[in-house]
Design a protein that fits this description.
By secondary structure, this protein is mainly β. The chain has no helices and five strands.
Length: 70
């Protein structure tokens, strides 16, 4: 799946990626907007920058994100 800037997403599960940290579990279920999809590489393993509602901007592995219907 390819994410795009401005797309609404939800952190729907913990990632299996090694970059997932235990503290990230607090963000599961939160909604946000993609601010940097890393489209220059288009690497499915690359981290994606997401601005979470009232929680700031964080970088997440792609396998923990799911697009929201717009």
């Amino acid at each position: 799946m390819s994410f795009r800037r401005g797309q609404k997403v939800v952190v729907f599960r913990p990632s299996e990626d090694e970059s997932w940290q235990d503290y990230m579990n607090q963000y599961i279920g939160m909604h946000g907007i993609i601010t940097d999809p890393d489209i220059s590489k288009n690497d499915p393993d690359a981290l994606i920058e997401v601005s979470l509602d009232e929680k700031g901007t964080h970088r997440f592995p792609q396998d923990c994100l799911r697009p929201l219907e717009e």
